[in-house]
Each structure stands twice: as C-alpha cells, then as structure tokens.
Amino acid sequence: MKISTFARHGREGFRNLSRNGWMTFASISSVTITLLLLGVFLILAYNVQLFSQQIEDQVEMNVLVKDGTERAQVLELERQIKSLPAVGEVTFVSKEDGLQQLKEKLKDNQELLNGLESENPLPDKFIVKAKNPTDTGYVAEKLSALPLVEKVNYAKDTVEKLFSVTKFVRNSGAVFVVGLSFLALFLISNTIKVTIFARRREIEIMKLVGATNWFIRWPFLFEGLLIGLFGSILPILLLGIGYDYLVRKVAGVMLFTFAPFDPLVYSVALILVGIGALIGMIGSMMSISRFLRV
Amino acid sequence: MIEMHDVWKTYPNGAVALQGVSVRIDKGEFVYVVGPSGAGKSTFIKLMYREERPSQGSIFVNGFNIERLKERKIPLLRRQIGVVFQDFKLLPTLTVSENIAFALEVIEAPKKKIKQRTAEVLELVGLSEKASALPNELSGGQQQRVSIARALINNPAVIIADEPTGNLDPETSWDIMNLFEEINRRGTTIVMATHNKEIVNTMKKRVLAVEGGRIARDERRGVYGYEN
Hints:
A: alpha+beta, 4-stranded antiparallel beta sheet, B: 6-stranded mixed beta sheet, 7 helices
C-alpha cells in the first residue's frame, strides 16, 4: 500500500468518527468503562497476587527429629532432606538454639524455663520451605516418611485455605477479564456496524468500480482502532491518579505494602492501550465482512 | 469479449432465473438486452460483472473465467468493466469530479493520472463546467452522464448498463443514448438492458430478447418486439 493511500484511510476513519458523533461517543464511553473496570481489576489482581505471594513465601514446615538421634545421623538427615527436588530452603535449629529462641520470645518470663538447660525437652528440628509453596503438603508427606523424622508440623488448614483463595482470585479474574473484553468487543462492533450501514452505498460503489476488500476495510479498522485508543485514555489517567493516591495515603496504615506505582501502572496502561486497540480492530472486522459481499 | 455456455442460475430461494443461456458478444459490439420484467435480464447482466455467480455453465468476460474467479480477483475483473445503473449510484456528498475520480482513487492510480483522466471524461460527457457541482444540483440526465464518465475513466473494454434511461424523460434518454453511441464508436463494447422500445427500434443494433430465463431471440439489426 502506498503511504498516500494509508493516509487517506486514516483520514477517512477519523472522518467517520466525527460524522457519527453520538454513536462514537457511546462506544468510546463503553470502551472507557470496560477498560476502567479491567484496569481496576488488573491492579487489584496484581496486588492480591503479590500479597498471597508474600504469605505463601512465609509458609514453612517444622521437621522434628526423633529424640536421641546422633549428630552424625542428623547431618545425614539434612543431606537427605536437601536431596529432595521440591525442597527449597533448609535451616537446622538444634535443641540448644531452640531453647535460646524460646527464651528470647518469652523475654520477661524467662524464669519459666529455668532448669530446662540440663534436661532440654525440645527436639532438634529443621525449618524447611518448599521450592514452590503450593507443594508444601506434598513435601511434608515425603519428609514424614523419612526414618529419623518424628513429626512434620505446618499450618495445614490455613495453608490449604490460603491456596484455594488465591487460586479462586486468579481464576475468577481471568473469567471476568474475558467477559468484559467480549462486552467491549460487542459494543464496538455495533458502533462500526452503524457507521458501515450508513455507508453501504459507498461500499457498494467502491466494490463495483474495483476496490479491493482491504481498501474498503482499512478506514473502518482505523475507526475501531481510534475508538479503542480514545477509550483507553480516561481509564489510564484515572487509574494512575487513583493508585498514586492509594499508595501515598493508605500505605503504612495497613500491614501490607502495595506494589510500587512504577512499573505496575505503566504496565497496566500498556495492557489497556493494547486491549483497546485490539478489540477496536477486531470489533470492526466482525462488522465489515457482511457488507463486503457485493 | 463475452461468452456464455449453457448458463443456469437458480437463486437460494429456489427461483430459476436463467435456464441454459449461451451467447457470444464480440469486441466493439453494441447489444440491447430486452424482455419482460422478471424474465432474467437483470441476472444475465449481473453475471457479467460477477455480482452473481452462475449455478452451472461457463462465462468468460474479457479473458476472465467468471465461475472460477477467486473472490479476491473480482476487483481485477471490475476494473476492466464499466457499470452504469438506472439509479446512477452517485455519492451525494462528493462533487461531480470527485465522484468520477473515485473510481481511480480506489485502485490507487497516481494523482496526476487521476486529474488528467477526470478532465478527459468530463469533456467527453460534456460536463466540464459542472465539475465542482454536487449531484443533487444536476438534472437526471446530467447525473447519468456523471455515472457514465465514472464508468469510462478506467478505459474499460466493455460497458454494462442496466436500464440507464429508466428514470429519464424521452428527450434526455436520446442524449444519453447518443453518448453511448459515441463511446461505442471509439471501440468500447456496450451491453445494455433496456425497456425503451423507441430507442431500440430506431438504433437498429443487435437485440437479445430474454424470456423465461432463455434467449428467445438474437437478431443482428433487431427490434424491441414487445408492447410497452
């Protein structure tokens, strides 16, 4: 295609937008709303993801070693634990270290522990994290089967609940995004349909004098693209301002720290522009094909 | 130029428009297509520029095999055919010269060539002075001249006209017919469907009569043959 032709298609697409002012306004608004919801959702989802990641990373197992196990055997056990492929970080806490930590925790009430040094009731233990937190249950099972392991403790119920919540958030998020995109697609394609309908005579004549289908399509593609792009401006501004405010004002009040503005908002902006442009063009492609059969 | 062999056309609703039409039209001919309404004239015409596809049979137009023509090659066929309609099919928001230039713009001809050709065909149809008028500022006859100019701008080998004088008064119809005559004299093949008895009988050209989906008559210097 020649550059001058390309410029012509762009001009035509732009002209269509202003010619059908109200319809254009309506579909830009619907794209705006869709993308705004999508953007809010993306930011929310990312933060939930980050939050659950932070919690997940704290999930650890206490592997208690059988009482009376020799030092050498403990070292052998450590080697065995580390050799499991799903196991990540492994920290050894000896009886003595354990007691020391307990004392520090109790601080003022240390006298409760007096006399325990001679007959320390705490076992040697390993603190183990799974490489992938969702494997925790599986790793715990494997570790309990080792001969020198007395018991494996971890917050089983809490961990499982946490994982099912984060999984739900991720899945329902995906469904939500897909649903919204289809809604926007439908609205854009309807708008383009109206503008095409108004110009079907022109299209008919173009076809009769030998215009190719692509020559006819391009202006409408531009129109859809512009609707998508214009529709992404307001959501990006609102999200940027809103998130900036949120990060400044709310951060520190809660336990959880928000994902930093940069790069999150920039990535979301890029995604929204991309999705806006894409559904704009797909929407117009969907409406044109029927009118090209002359 | 145009050849049809045993062409049948059945529409999806079951209506049979053509039943075994065979005809040959040579380069430079002027052919009237006559016949009662609903006899298949329009279908016969539409097959030539591939607005309709034949259900059966073969059609060649200017070397294109119509029934084998791929969807995306249709524009190439249409660039070699000028089509003129009863309702002119002009774009109301474009000026006369823009309407004519449109046919070259959509095939991405160079600007200089578009300008030159537009002036040439405007001169030929006698509308040079109306170049910047809008279609609704013109009379019916003038509008039809604009649509003929648009059909001519590609230098087509054949012009296909579907009732071009159907909306015009008798005097204007004669002007238009003389214009077609002039175009034909310059070597362009013309196929024209018409209901205009007086013109067909006076011009003494080849006449194809389509009745009940068949060619009922094919006469060298024919007459209209129906009562209006």
